[in-house]
Amino acid sequence: MSEKKKLKVATTSLAGCFGCHMSFLDIDERLFTLLEHIEFDRSPLTDIKTCSPDCDIGIIEGGLCNAENVHVLREFRQNCRILIAMGACAINGGLPAQRNHLPLTTILEEVYHTSPGLANGMIPNDPELPLPLNQVHPIHEVVKVDYFIPGCPPSGDAIWKVLTDLLAGREPSLQHGLMHYD
Amino acid sequence: MSLTFTLDGKTIPFVDGETIIQAAGKAGVFIPHLCYHPEFKPHGSCKLCTVKVNGRHTASCTMRAMPGMVVESDTEEINAERRALTQMLFVEGNHFCPSCEKSGNCQLQATAYHLGMMSPHYDHFFPNRPVDATHPDVLLDFNRCILCSLCVRASRDVDGKNVFALSGRGIKTHLIVNAKSGKLGDTNFALADKAAQVCPVGVILKKRQGFAVPIGERKYDKAPISEAVTEGK
Questions:
Q1: B48 and B117 housed in the same domain
Q2: In angstroms, what CA-CA distances link A23 with A13, A61, A160, A181?
Q3: Which residue, among A133, A61, A62, has the nearest Cα to A99 in the 3D structure?
Q4: pLDDT, chain A, mean
Q5: Which of A95, A101, A140 is closest, CB to CB, to B119?
Q6: pLDDT recorded at residue A43
Q7: In this structure, is residue B141 part of a structural domain?
Q8: Same domain membership, residue B207 and residue B133
Q9: Is residue B115 assigned to a domain?
Q10: Is B138 helix (H, G, I), strand (E, B) or coil?
Q11: Tens digit of each residue's pLDDT, chain B (233 residues)
């Protein structure tokens, strides 16, 4: 192993399902090769709760569905030199964004009041809960995003390809078979 | 004497009256397109097939081939413009590929792959476009409509039914159904109609057969659209 400084990589899942992180783990034993070049900073894999100020790469899964998502995204942008949107939800809002044509109050009413079996249901209003946004947004609508890995989820091979392209100083690209939106 | 023009330096033969995209298709050269279909009159609206003819932009589906033309198509500049057009189509509608039955067989998606579209780039409109499930055999999901007008042309010119039309102007242009109620169930539209077969995206869907082909075996899983679509098939 070279003496070269390892790149700091932070990851998070916002309005996502953690499927992209599971797919990230699908690079399998290549994780060992990756760990010769990188170390994880803030990530569900390390349970570190805040980004170091000198992260090299931030990987974001999921879109923005509440105020906390926006806060975390801004923290990542502030602390990471390169920001990557991983997966359909980060890129176009994905499944959560399919609520976007419905008014938020209608959704909350339906989910907590009017659905069958919800006698005396109430809409949660604990001040600790982050406020939902009126619409779910992809992350590039709020901060500058440098690279995108499409897919729902992107395959381990696609994630590997983009990360190794970046580590080698190449512009990331996905050929037929690796590029997919579903 | 046979007539020819050059396309990205390659000599392409054509017969008088053929458009650039028709001649290119015959010669096995792919030019990205969405509203063009070899069986129908060109519509010239999607602009994906734009090429440079003697240095000037033009739609290759409406431009007749002329002897000695110098045509550029597969260049970084033109492909970047095509990619931007495709990105605009994605953000104007609601294109959620993972939950779309057409995924893997969709010309818009496959074209975006071909153009290396890694993100939609622009801000999303997230328009509200209710679906129409009134027809017994066919679902209409307007969220994915790219206004190519192929169903309009097929229903009018082949089926003789005039079931579809484009209504409104500019950004408000949208697909409508020609019935008093505006519902497909109140028309004589049938599954066997040509108009039911031509949608390049996931608007006109046969009911009760969604996701029939597994991922990996769908049309554009097997080959990129540049190989699957020459001669405009």
A1: no
A2: 13, 11, 10, 14
A3: A133
A4: 95
A5: A140
A6: 97
A7: yes
A8: yes
A9: yes
A10: strand
A11: 699 999 999 999 999 999 999 999 999 999 999 999 999 999 999 999 999 999 999 999 999 999 999 999 999 999 999 999 999 999 999 999 999 999 999 999 999 999 999 999 999 999 999 999 999 999 999 999 999 999 999 999 999 999 999 999 999 999 999 999 999 999 999 999 999 999 999 999 999 998 999 999 999 999 999 997 654 44
Nearest to B98 among A138, A174, A182 (CB): A182
Can you give the residue range of the structural domain that contains B115?
Answer: 101-223
Q: Give the CATH number for residue B64.
A: 3.10.20.740
* Measured distance CA(B123)–CA(A86) in Å, rounded: 17
Reduced to 3 states, what is the DSSP secondary structure of residue A177? coil
Q: Are residues B113 and B69 in the same domain?
A: no
Domain-located, residue B116: yes
pLDDT of the residue at B228: 79
Q: Are B39 and B133 found together in one domain?
A: no
**CATH classification at residue B199:** 3.30.70.20
Contacts of A135 in chain B (CB under 8 A): 126
Residue B208: partners with Cβ closer than 8 Å, 6 or more residues away: none
| Residue in chain A nearest B95 by alpha carbon | A92
Residues B33 and B108 in one domain: no
> Contact B123/A92, CB-based, under 8 Å?
no
Domain total in chain B = 2
User: pLDDT digits over A87-135, tens only?
Assistant: 999 999 999 999 999 999 999 999 998 888 887 788 999 999 999 999 9
One domain, residues B140 and B192:
yes
Residue whose C-alpha is closest to residue A92's, from B112, B19, B158, B37: B112
Examine residue B68 and state whether it is found in any structural domain, yes or no: yes
End-to-end CA distance of chain A: 37
Q: Which residues of B touch A (CB under 8 A)?
A: 90, 94-100, 103-104, 109, 112-113, 116, 118-121, 123-124, 126-129, 215, 221, 223-224
Residues A7-14, mean pLDDT to the nearest whole number:
98
Please tell me the distance in Å from A162's CA to the nearest CA on chain B. 11
- Measured distance CA(B147)–CA(A84) in Å, rounded: 32
Q: Do A181 and B128 touch (CB under 8 A)?
A: no
